[in-house]
Amino acid sequence: MAFENLTSRLQNAFDKLRGRGKIDETVVNEAMREVRLALLEADVNFKVVKDFIARVKERAVGQEVLKSLTPGQMVIKIVNEELIELMGGHVAQLAVANRPPTVVMMAGLQGAGKTTTTGKLAKYLQKQNRKPLLVAADIYRPAAIKQLQVLGEQLNVPVFSLGDQVSPVEIARQAIEHAKENHLDYVLIDTAGRLHIDEALMEELKQVRDVAKPDEILLVVDAMTGQDAVNVAESFNSQLELTGVVLTKLDGDTRGGAALSVKAVTGKPIKFAAMGEKLDALEPFHPDRMASRILGMGDVLSLIEKAQAAVDEEKAREMEKQMRQGEFTFDMFLESMQQLRNLGPFEDILGMLPGMNKMKGQLKVDEKQIARVEAIVKSMTKAERANPELLNASRRKRIAAGSGTSIQEVNRFIKQFEEMKKMMKQFTGVADKMKKKAKKKGFGLPFLGKGGGNPGGMNFPFNFKPPFK
């Protein structure tokens, strides 16, 4: 999980501030020593760490604690604001040319995921109702052109290629003309990478840049390489004058050094972050949301956006209506699980919920167990899914055989389902009360169904105890 180690270290540092009545220099120094070590262990650039700590100290020393805040919360607030500023302060938008097409040149070393990221960016633009053109200008890496063509087929996006015998400069020039003639909005040029930075690579990229006159020059770097990613970004920027950076494999980077260093070192914003292997796993980089994740405060806004994009709203509303009538069937359970799976790995989703980082040891999600539960439900007949009372001993034996599980597992799941059903009924009543109170006060509440601020009417079939009767 992204930033897992850093988040854990920072939370340990802030825990030591609890119970303090006033923030003084000694207290701040003690906390900042821990923060400094946490950042250095996360492979953040040394100078960046030094400047960051100095700014936090300057703001924190001598501040009286606000009535509504503990000293720990005051320091966390300052650290949060400085982290946001460190990573760029605001979302850096992708350029839009005054006259289409907008030309985006993708650069990077081999192995950073440049070609795949080019495809992901095309998918992102499709969602914005744009018409992109993929340009195969990497004529050196074996199968690079074929890889881009396969991505184009998957996305139903046109791919411009002149083979591997024409120069990348000529390919870029003709691709832009092709985009103009066919009224395409964006031209995404997938340039060649190398195993290391060399003069030949830079010279060719400069020639492509001079001909294509790109509105964006995006550098794709592997976040998992840590400080090396920052060094690569600095070298490319000095030669090409980048407009932004795309961090790939950020979901696999437990340290986070690249994300925290690249803007400060290069002066160029992180525009996108790739958080998975799927073609839709490219997100605009939000410094405020990333800072919130780093500090273990979750990222509810990104979770809401994921829900809006992935959840079938019509199905969710129908399910909500049935629940309000006291119905909760195995089919509804299965549908809920599938909708949740559309949001991504469960551990990543839990990580977006505030306070879940400290509980992740208790909330380990076993994907294999989830698959076994789904197999049990799918082994039931349509009548059995709608009416659990039909599940006698012989039927349960058949279901166990059909799902590759034991009778004990089937019995355990059915029992848990019945308990969940009771809880869902309780929760529906609680949610209604909360929504009525919220409506009177003029605001909505998340995850409470239609009218409660719920994106897509999503319902979570989790077995939990309502906070009050």
Automatic annotation (TrEMBL):
It is an enzyme of class 3 (hydrolase). This is Signal recognition particle protein. One of its GO terms (biological process) is SRP-dependent cotranslational protein targeting to membrane. Belongs to the GTP-binding SRP family. SRP54 subfamily. Residues 101-296 form the SRP54-type proteins GTP-binding domain. The gene is ffh. PANTHER family: SIGNAL RECOGNITION PARTICLE 54K PROTEIN SRP54, SIGNAL RECOGNITION PARTICLE SUBUNIT SRP54. One of its GO terms (cellular component) is signal recognition particle. GTP binds at residues 108-115, 190-194, 248-251. Composed of three domains: the N-terminal N domain, which is responsible for interactions with the ribosome, the central G domain, which binds GTP, and the C-terminal M domain, which binds the RNA and the signal sequence of the RNC. NCBIfam families: ffh. InterPro entries: AAA+_ATPase, P-loop_NTPase, Signal_recog_part_SRP54_M_sf, Signal_recog_particl_SRP54_hlx, Signal_recog_particle_SRP54_M, SRP, SRP54, SRP54_GTPase_dom. Residues 100-247 form the AAA+ ATPase domain. One of its GO terms (molecular function) is GTP binding.
